[in-house]
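User: Some background: our group keeps a shared notebook of sequences we're curious about, and every so often someone picks one and asks for a predicted structure to add to the entry. Today it's my turn. The entry only has the sequence so far, pasted here. Could you supply the structure so I can complete it?
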Amino acid sequence: MISLLACSFLAYSQNSSFFFPRPHLRMLRRLLERPCTLALLVGSQLAVMMYLSLGGFRSLSALFGRDQGPTFDYSHPRDVYSNLSHLPGAPVAPGGPSAPQGLPYCPERSPLLVGPVSVSFSPVPSIAEIVERNPRVEPGGRYRPAGCEPRSRTAIIVPHRAREHHLRLLLYHLHPFLQRQQLAYGIYVIHQAGNGTFNRAKLLNVGVREALRDEEWDCLFLHDVDLLPENDHNLYVCDPRGPRHVAVAMNKFGYSLPYPQYFGGVSALTPDQYLKMNGFPNEYWGWGGEDDDIATRVRLAGMKISRPPTSVGHYKMVKHRGDKGNEENPHRFDLLVRTQNSWTQDGMNSLTYRLLARELGPLYTNVTADIGTDPRGPRAPPGPRYPPGSSQAFRQEMLQRRPPARPALCLLPTTQPAVVHTDSSLPTLIMKLNQKGCILPTLSSSLLLEGCGGIEL
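Assistant: Of course. Here's the predicted structure to add to the notebook entry:
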């Protein structure tokens, strides 16, 4: 093709100078008449033909446009609980997806798949309703197919705080979705304790560490709580060649990828891939930035992001207002600039947290962790303002006063012996202490009295 174009140009240039001035035309003709130039053109043609024959066309398609993949009719979705009656009835033994011996492997593509499934946000089901519809799910949100050996063991890790309705919608939708794929799976919900700024990426690091303590999972699916998959051909398995970004077509973005480096929503990595990129960053407090940081980590770790076809990776986002405590991160751009130098120090190797609870619920494993607070965040807001002269205003004023450093007097609950021995009743004692100028931080049966050293009652 290239040689043919060159010959055509030579023939055309003898009779026309429409495209080029004559001096330039003569120079190009002399260049093309040289044997080495023609040999170079022939070699280039052979290289292009070989590239296309070895799958280069697919690479060009991925470069210049997203692969649309197979066609699905999303106007007629099936119920998300379709085909579950065809599953073998025997539930798995307690203890999670440990493989029984002697079973054949499940098919590479489950025969139970139905394609597009319906997604409804109303009514929000109760936990009891979800449990009733998923009788084969074991404590901790574990499941494995009873009739065959699954080809993948997948841990679903969901960062969470104050999104109970979203969590129930996800559990109602995701359990049957995964069962039809004939996977062994477990769902982990990682709850951030306290009211500090939300940190999605750090919670995912916590979830990965806690999940890997239970099983040698083949695949880690990092899943936002407000995204529901719409096509069960979107398999929740990992790609051994590199990290997968799965939520490629969300209704929020008109079912298209917002930009090529986007890695948010739902992603999948093997444990080795996750550790190779040092996990996710711990320093992104609030909304925004961590997805781009993660995509940069993938590249710096020498890996490439893969994606399912756009027609398969459909997700619907649960409508919600902005979260209190998850405001836009004002430092995200400063952090992104430093990713190239910080990714090897900020991640799984620097993760610190305090595990507060680990519970096996009927539909998921709940992990509650104290991950600290944003060191650059604002200080706690001041307390409420009460009407002048009210008892609340008096107490607030007393709490804000700082007495000279003196030994504190502590009264234990009145059912136990007190530090100060007196025959006075509790109301009389409080009145006497008020007269002495003591500070009463709490008005209950247990009092901590500051600045009352040396008082004789």
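Suggested note for the entry: Residues 51-65, 90-96, 402-427, 439-457 have pLDDT under 50 and may be disordered. The longest strand covers residues 184-192.
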